[in-house]
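tool_call predict_complex ligand=4'-deoxy-4'-aminopyridoxal-5'-phosphate
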Amino acid sequence: MDLTKHAFFEGKIVPLSEAKVSVATHGFLYGTAVFSGMRAYWNEEKHALFLFRPYDHFRRLLESGRMLAMEIPYDEEGLIRLAIDLLKHDNYQQDVYMRPTIYKADMGIGVRLHNLRDELSIFTAPYEAYVQNDMNSHVTISSWRRVDDNMIPARSKVAGSYVNSALAKTDANRAGFDEALVLNADGHISEGSAMNVFMVRNGVLYTPPITDNILEGITRRSVMEVAQKEFGLEVVERSIDRTEILIADEVFLTGSAAQIVAVTKIDFRPVGSGSMGPITTKLRTFYEDVVRARTQKYASWNVEVK
Ligand code: PMP
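tool_result ok
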């Protein structure tokens, strides 16, 4: 982490080195925090930085907070303003990752959600590639199951629930895989450790529905819209069987950090031809233009930092 950068912490912008919580903070003790992972992209031609879909990210953050009985004095627009102020403060001229968190900020023991103070923090970091093999990743189907909506809501980004993702990811990496695909309790494919999943069969794009314990991904939503509008693809939200994904023509993962990652092997079985397929390739290229504010049509998704 670059500690000379700044963070929004307890109501003001401070050096990241000063943005500290106590070991007795509720969010640290019990994982009672919700967060967002969003990105700002540097556009060299326009010499400007653009946040990608910040309204949607902050909306999901506030919704996640609502599920955890959290209240902060900002709406989506207010949060966008804060995010822009913070990015301007460090005068970034490169791609940036941004992590807003709402957390239970009181100190002390006692598991609950009510009668606790909530705080907002935001920090930024120069962006580094999230997945190394993003054009030919080898994934495994994890033995860990995805958290269920009646345990910890998968549709929200609750800090504590990322233990579930971390277990799947570490076991996959230690076994030599790039990523994990995680099944629901009922055995259907839900998503990756921190990415949604798509499969192509006979030219149709399939992705699990939001009722299959997935995070309601913003990249997922963007890809679905672009696939339909730009490439005329049929996009179907329905459950995907474990064996069905093994015989798909193409598989890819989507996420704000990961962007679009081609999966070319699942548990040693090649996906389709065994190399990145034509639909994944087209979507990746177009998505890169969209996030970098190079398309007119999707310009409303790019919010300039100014
Ligand atoms: N699923 C999980 C569990 C995630 O952590 C992420 C990353 N936020 C995603 C999916 C992808 O969501 P998004 O496209 O909104 O980043």
